[in-house]
Amino acid sequence: MGTDLTIHEVRKRYADVEALAGVSLTIQGGEFFTLLGPSGCGKTTLLRCVAGFLRPDGGQILCGGDRLDRLPAHKRDIGMVFQNYAIFPHLTVFENVAYGLRARRVEPTEIRRRAMDTLRLVQMDALADRRPDQLSGGQQQRVALARAMAIRPRLLLMDEPLSNLDAKLRVEMRTEIRRLQRELGITTVYVTHDQEEALAISERLAVMNAGRVEQVGFPWDVYQAPHSAFVAQFIGTSNALEGVLQQTAAGRSRLDIGGWTLWGRSRDGLAQRVLAVFRPEAVSLVEDNRGSPGDTIGEGVVVSREFLGAILRYRLRLDGGHLIHLDEHKPDAARLRKEGMRVRFVVRSDDVMLFPVEEGS
């Protein structure tokens, strides 16, 4: 079982920029936890504070009850996987993986056993004698993973480790990383800006914005029940329309959006100006005004369409000028809507999330 990691009110400032504004997180032993957010949100800064590459200006970082923030980086018992792999070009695959074990003065026979065992885990044992310049990008990343895991650290930190790989290999490697992490039970903190990757790989995740944690939760909960407009718009593709709240009754609210009436699920704390957020999959094409009670019927003109394999994504312009996305699953080639065609659609009110419009927006 892995070791718990507790981050309490950690702060970090660069001149006038508050990179971390009192971040607190609790990560369970053996958990695969992801820090997700846009560039500049503080996720890599937080990871580097945990690793010991940066010293926080305030707060505490504890691992298994020990104060990590009081220890130098080389005494924290942490494995780190970087975006650029950072494997030694002059060493063989085996020597790269054995490096950390030698630095810890492990017995030579044990070094050989543990290095080869870890290479077998990442399916690289057959290439143990090769040098990095003889490997593909995916193979180099496996070596970086093996080197970090061979020392059996109490924490494994991963900073955008798949961003340099092609799309197909990223999917394969994230599955492999998750398998290895489960097998070894190492507490893992993973940093990415890729929402799909975070949703697919994480047990839990924290969405960060401007040095703060916006929401922590299971991937499904964060996607389906975002706590803020930022999370709703950052996770996945969303339609976001600003309107005026007109009526609230029976758990639903009616909005006026440029002359179009939209119904959504009501919530506390709404003022007159409201942001309505709904996913493209919450919108369906219809031939007439049919829809479930309380749903919204709308009309728009097809501006563009994208074929994305399992879905066809339409971009529609409403009469008031707003643009929305609509996803059609299993599209019928005989019934494709052409650009410039006027279409009718329905939006399910239960899928329309309402948020107060932030001041200054």
Describe the protein.
The chain is an alpha+beta fold. It has eight helices and 20 strands. A six-stranded mixed sheet has the order 6-7-8-3-9-10, with helices on both faces. A hairpin with a 3-residue loop joins strand 16 and strand 17. Helix 2 packs across helix 3, helix 2 packs parallel to helix 4 and helix 3 packs across helix 4.
Based on the model shown, name its key terms.
single chain, alpha+beta, six-stranded mixed beta sheet, 361 residues, five-stranded antiparallel beta sheet
Helical percent range?
10-25%
How much beta, percentage-wise? 35-45%
Q: Runs with pLDDT <50, length 5+?
A: none
**What's the SSE pattern?**
EEEHEEEHHHEHEHEEHHEEEEEEEEEE
Shape: elongated
Mean pLDDT: 89
Q: What does the main sheet amount to? A: 6 strands, mixed
Strand order of the largest sheet: 6-7-8-3-9-10
Number of H/I helices: 8
Number of strand elements: 20
Q: State the secondary-structure class.
A: alpha+beta
What is the CA–CA distance across the termini?
46 Å
Overall radius of gyration: 25 Å
